[in-house]
Amino acid sequence: MTHKSRFSVFIASMFVSSSLLSACAASASPEPAVNLTPEPVHTDFATCVINLQQKAKVAGISQHIIDTTVANLKYVPRVIELDNQQPEFTTTFGDYFEKRVTVWRVEQGRKMLAKHHDLLTQLTHEYGVPGQYIIAFWGLETNFGSYKGNMPVLDSLATLACDPRRSDYFTGELLQALKLKQQYQFDDSKMVGSWAGAMGHTQFMPTNYRKYAVDGDGDGVADLWNSEADALTSAANFLQHLGWQADERWGREVLLPANYSFEYLGRKSTLPLSRWHALNIKKTNGQAISTPDMQAALYLPAGHTGTLHF
Question: What tens digit of pLDDT does each residue of 67-85 get?
Answer without folding.
Answer: 999 999 999 999 999 998 8
